[in-house]
């Protein structure tokens, strides 16, 4: 497609850990969100908002790499999230390497776009470290005030250039430093994005016919700061304390599943809830906790609104397609009091906001209930850009060892027509064992903890299934113990050796466990129809359809690296030497 005879620009705005509003959100919280998330509301007012959009993996690093490569962790290799049991340098941590699986930036550069990144990255380790340490060089202080010389250092270093993006200002907003929380980093990311848009606008106004179209990512952190709730609230988040005292935050009622026993659910869910305060921080799932989450959504939306307002003032506003989404959701005390986004596939984690916005495409807001996935983003944007993906793939295979056809759907033709696309079948996978690694002790008590009980690797299929009573939306999840994450010499060691191909999908001696939910009848996912204790178990016919879909989706989408060294015998390997 084209605007005014030119290919469209793209601005992708993301948040971190923002879930789609759950069906049980109380009216006060919903009204507050509508009144206070003005940036997101304005983007949606000129766009199509997808009501059933799901992430492809969890947590942060696996999800983000999945979004921006259009492939699953089985191929791109970023299956783990650092921060609890492992650092970014842990032997169990695998990052995306340049010249392996191409990113969104690589695809769009090959298509003739200029490509920019501002904000959280988390696909690779890109920080500038203090020499002789594994400590990232900060670019701002604990109050968010920038260090101009270090900002310029990161700008000149251009650390994401090998991944197809320019202009990233590090370090990664990750870890235990207050300087790197979202509250301190997001204002800077907004300023950097606004500066970029103004620079692009100046160039476009000076030479409107001589500029390549652009793709820019503006990647915010919040509401991810919810992970710091608890004893850090009073010390780090004075703005939240002021909002509480002013009574400007909504009443947020607990989720209906807060006291769920989980006796009919896979065992790792209950074990994760038990281990969470032992491996991280004890955090009460009370109303203050829930209000903090809403406060953080409001804070990041102010930055979204400022970036979008800047775009509105640019000469290319009508020629720019805006995408708004989040990498994954947040449990916020649902399903037995769970925190964050691990060891389950509930909608609180998987279902996220997703809007495609442009004033020429959508004069009025639209919504659609089509099942869509983060894996659809890259092929859809390429479709909107009018790119020849087969030609681009041939080009990328020259410089990337694992350039494969994209596994998501190209929804561009329906978006251009302003219509909802037909339903697809969604696949989700996660191997993220966040608690495993070389630092398996609590940071406060210094007490060691154990891994979450197996089976705890997940793959999920979500689909509409036709029944004699009509079509129903189903979610089916298999929990299994993935042998890819064993040491090849010491069986069942934590995930050392995760780079081995995962051709085997069932471990010896640990049977898989299952969940099935009829989301049309049970939107809160309370009744696991695979449990022998469930009064109304799933019918054999529907189970057979779901198992078939899961097997088909795994085969179609769970690709594996083709550049392995399996043909190299031990006798061809020389002794290790520096």
TrEMBL record:
The Sulfatase N-terminal domain covers 8-387
* Membrane-crossing segments per the record: none
Domain of life, per UniProt, equals Bacteria
- Identify the InterPro entries for this entry: Alkaline_phosphatase_core_sf (IPR017850), GAG-degrading_sulfatase (IPR051849), Sulfatase_N (IPR000917)
Segments of this protein annotated with the region Disordered: 553-578
One term of GO molecular function: glucuronate-2-sulfatase activity
UniProt KW keywords: Hydrolase
PANTHER family documented for this protein: ARYLSULFATASE K
Which protein is depicted? Sulfatase-like hydrolase/transferase
What organism does the record attribute this protein to?
A: Sulfidibacter corallicola
The lineage, from the top, is: Bacteria, Pseudomonadati, Acidobacteriota, Holophagae, Acanthopleuribacterales
